[in-house]
């Protein structure tokens, strides 16, 4: 019993570290990748490459699940994808939404500093909650509604703090940024892109959860379905947004070791999170997100000459508080019996949503 408890605690700590690093490092890496000196890679191609890496990784994992037998792997793919065309067609909707979402996140990272980006993207909690109420008819607790209000106030405070700096320290920060080929900074565009990504994240996550509710499909097979169907939409996005640049410079223009690292981080990091989330309760996930925001703020000060104001700090604090409040379950304090039932349901829902989230 002691060994099992110790093992469980180790898994929780591993989950905390993994979730924190994934949340913090990805935002910082995306920001650096879009503002560093040198040739700027096309973000639409990076999104496609991340889907390819995720598809390849998921195929390997399903191959291992099927006992390292290619015949079983082929049969499983045929049974899940080919023999169920209606379900496969339904997955086209979240696949398209995720491609647009990931492209919007690159736009946001190009125009918002990592700290602001990290705080603003927590609005996906609000959009997910709203779509859960509208689509799944889920009822929110009063504490969760209060948390959503705090979240909006906190994000608004952060954005207003940064807008107020635009006439002063923001100009200095813009001048101190690396003189590369990165896009001219447009805070409104970055914020709008982040809002769009949050909206799509909530819609796609809840749609995916509703569609796959009760389906007997492994987590890796679901990722294969999503990535496989995301590729056509990703290539179409490349052609529409960056067709002229692709024709003139090529698909891998601007790629180097860092871009490869960023693609792998975005693809494999999401898969790792989907595994460890089952060992993380709401409090632990709240800690992970809060630590990621703090790490992003501190790192941005040293890496991107980010100016941390009192208003930004208060806003970030409200966002962190709202995360804990939203995940707080008052019923858990009334006894083990009332806590056990929702925990199993919450676990399944969280796994479905985080599997689909992709960032």
TrEMBL record:
InterPro entries per record: EmrE-like, Nuc_sug_transpt
One GO cellular component term: Golgi membrane
Top-rank taxon, per record: Eukaryota
Main location: membrane
Pfam family, one: Nuc_sug_transp
GO MF term set: pyrimidine nucleotide-sugar transmembrane transporter activity
Membrane topology note: Multi-pass membrane protein
Transmembrane parts of this sequence: 40-64, 119-136, 143-161, 188-208, 228-252, 258-277, 284-304, 310-328
Compartment(s) of residence: Membrane
Keywords: Membrane, Sugar transport, Transmembrane, Transmembrane helix, Transport
Stated family: Belongs to the nucleotide-sugar transporter family. SLC35A subfamily.
NCBIfam families (alphabetical): nst
Protein name: UDP-N-acetylglucosamine transporter
Organism: Anopheles coluzzii (African malaria mosquito)
């Amino acid at each position: 019993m002691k060994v099992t408890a110790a093992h469980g605690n180790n898994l929780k700590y591993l989950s905390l570290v993994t979730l924190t690093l994934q949340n913090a490092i990805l935002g910082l890496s995306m920001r650096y990748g879009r503002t560093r000196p040198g040739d700027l890679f096309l973000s639409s191609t990076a999104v496609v490459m991340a889907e390819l890496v995720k598809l390849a990784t998921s195929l390997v994992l399903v191959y291992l699940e099927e006992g390292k037998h290619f015949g079983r792997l082929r049969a499983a793919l045929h049974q899940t994808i080919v023999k169920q065309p209606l379900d496969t067609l339904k997955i086209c909707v979240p696949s398209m939404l995720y491609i647009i979402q990931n492209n919007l996140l690159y736009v946001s990272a190009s125009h918002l500093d990592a700290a602001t980006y990290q705080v603003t993207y927590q609005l996906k909690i609000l959009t997910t909650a709203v779509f859960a109420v509208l689509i799944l008819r889920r009822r929110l607790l009063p504490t969760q509604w209060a948390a959503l209000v705090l979240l909006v106030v906190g994000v608004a405070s952060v954005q207003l703090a940064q807008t107020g700096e635009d006439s002063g320290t923001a100009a200095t920060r813009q001048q101190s940024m690396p003189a590369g080929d990165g896009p001219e900074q447009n805070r409104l565009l970055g914020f709008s892109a982040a809002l769009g990504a949050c909206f799509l994240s909530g819609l796609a996550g809840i749609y995916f959860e509703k569609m796959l509710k009760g389906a007997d499909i492994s987590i890796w097979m679901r990722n294969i379905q999503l990535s496989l169907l995301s590729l056509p939409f990703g290539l179409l996005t490349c052609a529409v947004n960056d067709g002229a640049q692709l024709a003139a410079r090529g698909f891998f223009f601007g790629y180097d070791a860092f871009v490869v690292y960023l693609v792998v981080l975005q693809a494999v990091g999401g898969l790792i999170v989907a595994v460890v989330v089952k060992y993380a309760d709401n409090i632990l996930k709240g800690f992970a997100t809060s630590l990621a925001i703090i790490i992003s703020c501190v790192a941005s000060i040293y890496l991107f000459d980010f100016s941390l104001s009192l208003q930004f700090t208060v806003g970030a604090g409200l966002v962190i508080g709202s995360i804990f409040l939203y995940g707080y379950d008052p019923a858990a304090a009334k006894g083990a019996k009332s806590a056990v039932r929702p925990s199993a349901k919450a676990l399944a829902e969280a796994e479905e949503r985080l599997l689909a989230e992709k960032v």
